[in-house]
Amino acid sequence: MIMKPCIMIIEDNIYLREELLHTFAKEGYAVLGISSFQSPEQEILNAHPDLVVLDINLPGKSGFELCKWLKNRCTFPILILTARDDLNDELRALGLGADDYLTKPCPPNRLLARVTRLLETYQKLPSLLKFGGLTFDVDACRILWKTTSLTLPETEGRIFQLLMEHAPDIVSKEYIAGNLWGGVDYVDENILQVNMTRLRKNLDKIGLKDIVRTVRGQGYVLCPSSEP
Amino acid sequence: MIMKPCIMIIEDNIYLREELLHTFAKEGYAVLGISSFQSPEQEILNAHPDLVVLDINLPGKSGFELCKWLKNRCTFPILILTARDDLNDELRALGLGADDYLTKPCPPNRLLARVTRLLETYQKLPSLLKFGGLTFDVDACRILWKTTSLTLPETEGRIFQLLMEHAPDIVSKEYIAGNLWGGVDYVDENILQVNMTRLRKNLDKIGLKDIVRTVRGQGYVLCPSSEP
DNA sequence: TAATTTCCTTACAACGACTGTAAGTGTACA
DNA sequence: TGTACACTTACAGTCGTTGTAAGGAAATTA
């Protein structure tokens, strides 16, 4: 069965939010509404949506700030939906990386068509993981950092993928081993360490020293030297 | 030196066309205006633009038809720019694969911002070659056809790439050999034939029999059984 | 029809990348 | 100082890729 994409609505007006949720739900999308504006960044990050519909006038951080912050860390499309029918706002939003800019009131058909277009376009993009200034192309097993790049062998790539997906949390050895070698009959505790050495040696090639840290007794964790 | 993207303007009103060309040229883009509406498809195909700005009301084929035709064969973004401020037209255009829909008159800043956004998004897409229902991902050396896909080894991939790039024209053996083995000292006439056999055998795996035809004394050519 | 040119096919071997095994070394912590 | 945990290096097997060699098939021409 094909999982429908998940749309997340960042809008403080509860009536409008519910209306938007309903509009998308009716079309078969999975939907999520922001629940509070305490720390919208974390809430969005944790939700892993496929697309975000974002208002500009929000309590706390503005939509502009949110848009910029998210575009530096995530790979989903952002559609701005706002009452501010102002060319300067639109230019600013697009400049910050927003993928579309629509003004309220907006016919549901129009919104749906734009969202569909964005989802179709983004589906063709390579699946990227972002964290701490690093980008990892899962399909190509390729790390992008600053102006350099590095292609990893399959095994090392899958380990690095797990570290990226769970960063900044610690990933246990058991979890990695289970994920790579079926977990059933643990080939050997050592093989993971060997691949860790290989991964670190490769990362060192492009200047990424000490990115993979060992937490004794617990596992490994990704520790970028500088946030983006 | 970095080559600026090329914008192509498909607009029959010569004054508006010149104005648009000027707008983009001033920003440093390479620009091209459609010269006639005899066979716009061929003119656009030959130009290999990075983005197309397309009007709806055109002599001959409508912008809708053009948009649909192009989206089935090309990979550049299409921005519709029309005087028809009609939601149904917009929905239709987006449904046909258009990437954006703007209405005239449109502030140059707005147009430029939208174009920039589309170019940035499309730059992240894998570089795809399309011909006759086939798609070839150059970076991944991967053929996509209907619901199947096939990853080729480097050498076969480069041969297939040359065939795709020049289709539906014949590609000479000398050209391929020159492109792959430096052309200087022709490793061996035979090695190309060996790789052709391998390529054909691989294509056969996903049901693409007789796609690569031999033209005796001239070279090879791509011959898809059915147009898309 | 026979000869010649052009193209195709198969088998083989060399090479390199990747990966797990084994054995020994280093390091933190009680 | 001892023990558990983690790291490193060398080695060998496997697999995919690629060019070489040799012979066969098909089309063209005399």
Characterization of the model:
The structure is a homodimer. With about 230 residues, chain A is of the alpha/beta class. Chain A has 2 domains: about 5-125, Response regulator (Rossmann fold); about 130-220, Arc Repressor Mutant, subunit A (Orthogonal Bundle), CATH 1.10.10.10. Chain A contains 8 helices and 11 strands. Chain A has helices at about 15-25, 40-45, 65-70, 85-95, 110-125, 155-165, 175-180, 190-205; strands at about 5-10, 30-35, 50-55, 80, 100-105, 130, 135, 140-145, 150, 210-215, 220. Chain A has a 5-stranded parallel beta sheet with strand order 2-1-3-4-5, sandwiched between helices. Chain A is elongated, with a radius of gyration of 20 Å. Chain B binds a DNA duplex (30 and 30 nucleotides) through helix 8.
What number of domains of chain A? Answer: 2
CATH-scheme architecture of the largest domain in chain A? 3-Layer(aba) Sandwich
Distance between the termini of chain A: 37 Å
Low-confidence stretches of chain A: none
| CATH class placement of the largest domain in chain A | Alpha Beta
Strand order of the largest sheet of chain A: 2-1-3-4-5
CATH topology of the largest domain in chain A: Rossmann fold
SSE succession of chain A: EHEHEHEHEHEEEEHHHEE
DSSP summary: helix tally of chain A:
8
| Structural class estimated from helices and strands of chain A | alpha/beta
Largest sheet of chain A: 5 strands, parallel
